[in-house]
Amino acid sequence: MKNKLFASLLSAGLLMSATSAMAAGDAAKGEAMAAPCAACHGSDGNSPSPMFPKIAGLGEKYLTNQLKMIRDGERNIPEMVGQLDGKSDQQLADMAAFFSSKSTQLAGAKDAELKLNSGEVVSALEFGEQVYRAGNLETKVPACTGCHSPRGQGNPPAGFPRLSGQYAEYIEKQLLAFRSGERSTDGEAKIMRSVAEHMSDAEIKAVSAYISGLY
To answer: How many Å apart are CA 166 and CA 106, to the nearest integer?
Structure first.
């Protein structure tokens, strides 16, 4: 089962690289259009609050796809309703290029004691590192490094986003959304849903905390 899941992740990544060609964005043009985004995401894409994700350095391909899905109503984010109406694919690519050209400011990881389903109390960061780097064979959770790299830098050509430096609270929220099926923007391959459905609350909280401290 685990081998099949890894094969699915790999094939999906190769497929995205081969078939999802898009026009390159112009960061200079995107800067002017991105001005309204500053209220929530910061002028350079580094949100000042964990209520909103950092979008600096996420990767142009990934961010372009997410902006298109938000514009087209395929991804429901109440705060974004109407924000991208009327924007062309090229304009969204330009905005993505602008934010992706910026450096992500590190959020910094915070450790805490975490109680596992077994009753064992562990360090959230130590357990999070274990899950991120090695997965969990018993619960059929693959390592996150396969798509997001050992340092959380992502895989821009394949459309896998950078995670390092992101707020732990936001990562946890998204993993829970993928697990419940509330978020389904991972395509027909269901990469993230296939991973998150096997993750416990403790695994999600731990890996989210660990990721926030990667750089």
So the answer is: 7
* pLDDT tens track for 123-174: 999 999 999 999 999 889 999 999 999 999 999 999 999 999 999 999 999 9
**Helix 201-212 × helix 124-134 angle, to 10°:** 90
Q: For residue 50, how far is the Cα from the chain centroid?
A: 14
Query: Are the CB atoms for 57 and 49 separated by under 8 Å?
Result: no
Q: What is the Cα Rg of the chain in Å? A: 17
* Domains detected in the chain: 2-12+107-212 (1.10.760.10), 20-100 (1.10.760.10)
CA 81, CA 95: separation in Å to the nearest integer? Answer: 17
Positions in the chain whose pLDDT score sits under 70: 1-23
